[in-house]
Amino acid sequence: MTKVQIVYKGKGLASLQVKGHAGAGAYGHDLVCAATSAICFGALNALEDIDADFDYEIDQEEASIKLLPKGAISEHDQVVLETLILQLKTIEASYPEAIEIKERK
Questions:
Q1: How much of the chain is in helix, strand and coil states, percent to nearest 5?
Q2: What's phi and psi for 8, nearest 5 deg?
Q3: Rounded to whole angstroms, how far apart are CA atoms 15 and 54?
Q4: Which of the four, 25, 28, 53, 80, has the lowest number of CB atoms within 10 Å?
């Protein structure tokens, strides 16, 4: 199962971690994993100044992003991250046995 951990600070995102394989299909043919990976890569590529505002890592087993201590991010990046979360929640609604999202403030 893919596990997503989202942590908020105030009204914005503090960190997001996506870990594990969905197990919704054979390796290389798992549509849930493929969709989750595509959403994460797309969001990270869409961020305006990822190196200045975030600490991030992405590989075959995990994708994580953490807001750096300096605090604020652009409105554009906030929308990108909100879209990322909405897309992950859409996958969870369709495949609750393959992806689980936990949020905390």
A1: 40, 30, 30
A2: -105, 150
A3: 9
A4: 28
Beta bridge partners of 65: 16, 56
Query: What's the CA gap between 105 and 97, in Å, rounded?
Result: 24
41-100 pLDDT tens trace: 999 999 998 888 899 998 888 999 999 887 678 899 999 999 999 999 999 999 999 999
Asked if residue 1 has pLDDT above 80, the reply is: yes
Cα distance between residue 102 and residue 24, in whole Å: 19
Distances (CA, A) of 15 to 26, 53, 59, 81, 97: 30, 12, 17, 10, 24
Cα separation, 6 vs 86, whole angstroms = 12
Amino acid identity of 32? Answer: V
Tallying the residues shown for the chain, one arrives at 105
